Amino acid sequence: MTFTITACGFVPNVWILIVLRAIQGCFSGYINNANAIVAASVPIEKSGKALGTLATGNVVGTLLGPLLGGVLADTFGYRESYYVTGVMMLVVFVTTALFVHEQFTPISKSQMVPVKQIFHQIQYPMLIWGLFVTTMVIQAANMSMTSVISLLIKELAKDQSRVALVSGIITSLPGVVTLIASPLLGMLSDHIGPEKVLVNGLLIAIICFIPMSFVTNIWQLGVLRALLGISDAALLPAIQSLMTYYVPKSGFGRIFSYNQSFQAMGSVGGPMMGAVVASIFSYQSVFMATAILEVANVLFLIPTTKALWHAGSVKDRLRVKEGRTVGDVKN
């Protein structure tokens, strides 16, 4: 990714840029591997907090990245922003190579457990599929606004000269809140169960998206976007925690990679949905469409998590898994 991003700054035409971006996509598996390493390394009773902290970097980077890109482009230029980003990726490479270590024994292809068998080993296979779909919907919901939010802000703003700056601030507000809330909600998921945090996080998102459809000024939109950061802080860490607990370690890499693929599908489908809805109805209608999508997701997810709602904290579940009941533990 360091090479491809840096090379984008030297392209002579758009076709080579497209090819380099496609190659970059083939090697952008860092996040799911980071999730798998953390999930396998951290004591499972602390997985919510650990994955919540890790997810903070992912979510905040996704939300603040466009703002940073805009600042770099305005300060240095479009091509130079690729060079700066390439240097940042080089720093990530060096940091990972020097400081990230794992105990890993390669498995030959003949000994590797097939994905179908991994799903047979999972206690709640429908839960995992529900988490895949939820990851896709969450990402689609976050990305559905990217194609229209600047246009909506331009429509609402009284001072047209500051539209770019205001758009960057409004876009980044959820990331600021997520930065603060994600580790806290991760600890909460360890205490009450990640499925409760997940479902309630989706409900908070719905509560935020519906009034966004009726905003009449930028301040209303900003407040609701900031509250949406609480939802973002709850969702992805809870999904990662549930996968960590219910997926066997032999399948971590592949299951987390599948989850990343569903997230990528949301990244593609979200902006397309937003653009289509905005072109047919209005910019605000995108928020209502996103809320409807989230409602459908909640209705789909609740049956898949129903068996977990009375399982207690992660520590309780671990002890039950070891053969002791939750009642025994409490006693």
UniProtKB/TrEMBL annotation:
One term under GO cellular component: plasma membrane
Chain segments annotated as transmembrane: 82-101, 122-143, 163-185, 197-220, 226-248, 287-309
Subcellular location per the Swiss-Prot or TrEMBL entry: Cell membrane
Lipid bilayer topology: Multi-pass membrane protein
Gene Ontology molecular functions: transmembrane transporter activity
Domain Major facilitator superfamily (MFS) profile residue range list: 1-306
Assigned keywords, A-Z: Cell membrane, Membrane, Transmembrane, Transmembrane helix, Transport
Keyword ATP-binding appears in the UniProt entry: no
Gene3D superfamilies reported for this sequence: MFS general substrate transporter like domains
InterPro entries xref list: MFS, MFS_dom, MFS_trans_sf, Tet-R_TetA/multi-R_MdtG-like
The protein's name: Drug H(+) antiporter
Annotated organism of origin: Paucilactobacillus suebicus DSM 5007 = KCTC 3549
